[in-house]
Amino acid sequence: IFEAVGAQGTVVLDEESLHVDDLDLFDGDSGLRFAEDLEVSELKVGADLEREGDLGEVPPHAVHESNHLTDLYRRDETIQVKGNGYVQSPRFPNSYPRNLLLTWRLHSQENTRIQLVFDNQFGLEEAENDICRYDFVEVEDISETSTIIRGRWCGHKEVPPRIKSRTNQIKITFKSDDYFVAKPGFKIYYSLLEDFQPAAASETNW
């Protein structure tokens, strides 16, 4: 079975072959239909999104061009944080797809911070020698002058800790390889903190 799964604009292709005469792809989460520019012979998925009813904002479309199904499917989304929300691995709380590289860039107003809280249901492919090499979720603090990795997590042993950004920007990256997957994946709740105080000079090397 060849499967195409959409999650907020991401197209994921599983299995090794597809033979069809006509195919419609639907984003199961948003109800959006991926239309146009589907060339199966080149395994190319590049799509415009057509609305079917009142679906709200159209998510960023996903593009993949490759002759190898082991290539990563990439998606980079920017989120303006004005209140509470969440991001999650595709299919959460079920097994996430393989070959993903998803990035969420969270921004809030100046003089605010962003808080991240992981759902208690957390599980990715296990680490190798205590290093998350294959499937992982990573959080980075972003500023105009530097990027600081706050942590990289995988496996099932513990839920990642609560994180407060040090500026008004934070980046979340999820990667899965082309081998083993796990469940439930992850779900991260974000919220706005408005009590931001600039760090003192002695604390700039956190």
Automatic annotation (TrEMBL):
PANTHER family referenced in this protein's UniProt entry, alphabetically: MEMBRANE FRIZZLED-RELATED PROTEIN (PTHR24251:SF30), OVOCHYMASE-RELATED (PTHR24251)
Q: Where is the CUB domain?
A: 75-193
Name the PROSITE patterns for this protein: CUB (PS01180)
**Species classification:** Eukaryota, Metazoa, Chordata, Craniata, Vertebrata
SUPFAM superfamilies this protein is in?
Answer: Spermadhesin, CUB domain (SSF49854)
InterPro entries linked: CUB_dom, Sperma_CUB_dom_sf
Keywords, comma-separated and alphabetical: Disulfide bond, Repeat
Which SMART domains does this one have? CUB
What name does this protein carry? Platelet derived growth factor D
